[in-house]
Fold this protein.
Amino acid sequence: METLHSVFVQPFIEIWQAPAFFVEVLIGGLMSGVMYSLVALGFVLIFKASGVFNFAQGIMVLFAALNFVGLLDLGVSIWLALPLTVLIMVALSFAVERLVLRPLVNQPHIILFMATIGIAFFLEGFGELLWGGDVRKLDVGIPQDVWFVGEVMIQQSDVVATAIAVVLVLVLALFFQVTRVGRALRAVADDHQAALTVGIPLQHIWIIVWSVAGFVALVAGIMWGARLGVQFSLSIVALKALPVLILGGFTSVPGAIVGGLIVGAGEKIAEIYWGPIVGGAIEEWFAYVLALVFLFFRPQGLFGERIIERV
Amino acid sequence: MFYREAGEFKTSYQADQAIFPHALDRGFVIAMVVFAVVVVPLIATDYWLGSILVPVLTLAIAAIGLNILTGYAGQLSLGTGGFMACGAYLAYKIATSFPELNLIIVFALAGLCAAAVGLVFGVPSLRIKGFYLAVTTLAAQFFLLWLFTRVPWFVNYSISGVPTAPPREVFGFLVTGAESAASTRYVFVVLVTIALALLAKNLVRSNTGRCWMAIRDMDIAAEIIGIRPLWSKLTAFAISSFYCGIAGALWAFCYINTVEPTAFDINRSFSVLFMIIIGGLGSVLGSFLGAAFIFLLPIFLNSLPGWFGVAISTELVSHIEFMVFGALIVFFLIVEPHGLARLWQIAKEKLRLWPFPY
Amino acid sequence: MVGMDATGDGILLESDGVSLSFGGVIALENVGFDVRRGEIRAIIGPNGAGKSSMLNVINGFYHPQSGTITYKGAARTQMRPHEAAVQGIARTFQNIALFRGMSTLDNIMTGRVHKIRSNFLLDALYLGRSRSEEMRNREFVEHVIDFLEIQSIRKVAVGRLPYGLQKRVELGRALAAEPDLLLLDEPMAGMNVEEKEDMCRFILDVNEEFGTTIALIEHDMGVVMDISDRVVVLDYGRKIADGTPDEVRRDQRVIDAYLGVVHG
């Protein structure tokens, strides 16, 4: 009886009694969600364009951030480090295309997925080989103060991150809808063979898309890194982008955003208000279980496409 | 010259269906089994028995489990660690709650509980496939591990949270606990492994196995010709989790001697997945080869610098390990998706013809 | 091999007013025809006419929005594919749907699946029913293999076989199910003349020796005229002709829609 009360009644009472705190938690969660969205964006890009589920996206976030921070620590100015890191990510996409994607071009998607798991592990080792495994502080001049709206405390860095994410999303959405390259990318996602037949240069497309995803990973890495410091656990956090994709749909840019927000807010609220009942650390699994439940009702995600299978 | 099939004609379907239809193979395997069970414990060192063979065999059981689910039935799972944890923690709970119960029964019950859990997390597979399913198995992984870490009931409210495995005997031999001899532990584990491998081999060659492979290859066609995907997928999840549960229990009781969560985290899940990719998807032999490979590679990499007289920090070695693993996964997927098992098969086929070229 | 059905008038399958649409796309509209026991019924028509959809409705993969399918005397419009298999309907597919990771023998063995009563426990121990059923089914499948003359590729993984042989293996899998009604979706597509002759021979043999009723979709008019007893013509999801091959060949609507005029 008491358990029922604490699960179904108590948390709502707490929310009611301290609304400002609830809003804070909510906003904090949403901001977290924006971070997840950034990582999920990279996934969506690659999946939309090549049908490949890039498990290594999370590690790419870490890898990009590591390179960036490493260069900064070596004394390179930020205005040089940024383009250099972008260059590194582009080089990475060339390598991935040549060494992994091209040899596996007609394999079933599950094989490509497992190959990206291999890439993830490789990058993890490689990144730490180059720059070491210590936590690095990342300071790019993002304001760290807080603002107050009424009683609610808002982190300035979170607002900056959101603004950047919004800009990034708009640019990407435009890119896919309007440009020739964007349309070609969508064709490729549907059918590799057919795209080849109509003369779309698959290799170029893949390199472009992985580079863009690499750039998105860099942005995500900088945002996350400024918040948490650049360290390995970033990639575990990035694993959470997977439930985000389930909620939003694997092929949808707006879906990645909305999904990220839902996951971020959901897990924070669950942790603060329901966590103490069961001993805390709900955040470890909440996002995944949420995705699991969601899959029952809407397997294609909020914005994803329904696939009709024909024989 | 040495490996001949000519002159071997099967006179009944029974003979053709046997697991090792060639007399030479049969003899070889029987000799291997006798060697493994009788000779090895007498000649191998405690280090080899307790720190190499026991964990490799245990991981092979987990690899067989994952192979059943992912290699044969085609349901990608990243929750192996979670199901192993089920087996370990439940075995602990059952063993401590019923101290008089035979250890084999304890493990069997723990395996059944793990199977039940696997069944529950397998239900989504009826509506979802591929990557989506992988994400739900992640839910199993994270949730189960959280459950066993946070709910003290499983570890009998022990203060440290990581209790030692209770010493237990099987037929008068002490097979768990600090006092047990490496050789007895080894013999116990190897016998369990052989039994489970045999059952698995029977399963995958039977109607059950064919249904799994049909679902893996083309599930719509499978349903149309009359296979029931519901039943097939759920049995795959249940049996796979049973194997993983037993492996987890053995890992805790006969190898590391404690019941701790870090042994069954997400890294374990990836590790076992790598074992079946490199060893060979859809192959019982491959599960063994992959387990040995993945387990021994870090040890090998660690010792390598020493052989060349170069000193390298363990941190550096671990980074190189990751790189080597990642590269090997990609390499095997490109060059030989059927893994080491297929390479072994090719070698045998070459042997059949040797010394003739074709 | 042929089981008895409930009706006495020799009709094995009857489609009545079947309509099927996907979203806004109409695949079948008010299609009605019957298939008599022991006959070879051809379903022809231009691409996109709904022929494959009709087969899918017959074996329960698609459920029509309206109309009924009567099989062996009982209405079975909401049948699931699994039930169809148990009821004696087997089929092949336009784009071969074999299990590429398995050998020829294993693929054909899967055709026996609805006859197997064993369970996974017995399978694991290879005892009792599991063993005896396996032997019995193996024997039957070997008959099918002999019939189709594919003994030499028994243990080869089907993914490695040439197209023509794959089609034959797929036929074998359907035959292994001992069907009363065999649905063939373009069984000769992509074959050369010799392969077509072989396939024709097999189809006729199956019909004559085992009495299996056959409904097949086919584009090769020569084949249709030679081997089928009666023909149904579909166009844009509607039935436009129904009769013997000769009747259909002379039907003006069919000529306009599909056949064209025979020259010379």
In short: Chain C touches chain A at residues 22, 52, 56, 61, 93, 97 (CB under 8 Å). The two ends of chain C are 44 Å apart (CA to CA).
